[in-house]
Design goal:
It contains 6 helices and 5 strands; from the N terminus they run ααβαβαβαβαβ. It is an alpha/beta fold and about 190 residues long. It has a 5-stranded parallel β-sheet with strand order 1-2-3-4-5. It binds iron/sulfur cluster. The site of iron/sulfur cluster has 11 residues, from helix 5.
Length: about 190
């Protein structure tokens, strides 16, 4: 890890137990991917070698809610699928966080139809919204880092008087500028 080189082996460090717990917790987030559409491909790219989500300790996708503490909703949610999403959220361990990735998960996107959920935050508490269609992997990494900052600040998700989870509701700002599309291209046959 390199820390042995920076500190001699007989060095004593003191800190609070809570800080150690927060450090361990934020350095080992286990995501539960709920990827239903094209945003899922960007989610896969985020975990792959080019973007390497492992640098943030969050690459262990579990596909098992009882072992996960970060739900990433990536893609549109059909009304029929909604009970499955809710069941997965309820089965995840506490404390747990939720990222809504992309326009479809947050608002239904272009699918303004009776069969599509118009925002998963109507049914589960969302902590970080990631804009884009699809968001780039950098944006998803920024969302994971936002969750890590919350954990570092010991801001364990609060609950209201009724015992229900209060969502943090952090909306990320786009961190890239769109480029103009190429014009004047022709296809040779
Ligand atoms: S936000 Fe865009 S990229 Fe993501 S699932 Fe919806 S249509 Fe696909």
């Amino acid at each position: 890890m390199g820390i042995e080189a920076a500190l001699s082996t007989d060095t004593v460090l003191t800190t609070s137990l809570q800080r150690v717990i927060n450090w361990a917790r934020r350095s080992s987030i286990w995501p539960m991917p709920f990827a239903t559409a094209c945003c899922g491909i960007e989610l896969m790219a985020t975990a792959s070698s080019r973007y390497d989500l492992a640098r943030f300790g969050a690459e262990v996708m579990r596909f098992s809610p009882r072992q996960s503490d970060l739900l990433i909703v990536a893609g549109r949610i059909a009304i029929k699928t909604l009970p499955v999403l809710q069941r997965i959220y309820e089965q995840m361990t506490e404390p747990k966080w939720v990222i809504s990735m992309g326009a479809c998960a947050s608002t239904g996107g272009v699918f303004d139809t009776y069969a599509t959920v118009q925002g998963c935050d109507q049914f589960i508490p969302v902590d970080v919204y990631v804009p884009g269609c699809p968001p780039r992997p950098e944006m998803l990494i920024e969302a994971v880092m936002a969750i890590q900052r919350i954990i570092d600040e010991d801001n364990i998700p609060p609950k209201g008087p009724d015992g229900k989870r209060i969502p943090l509701g952090i909306a990320l700002q786009p961190n890239y500028a769109t480029r103009p599309q190429p014009v004047g291209l022709s296809v040779s046959r």
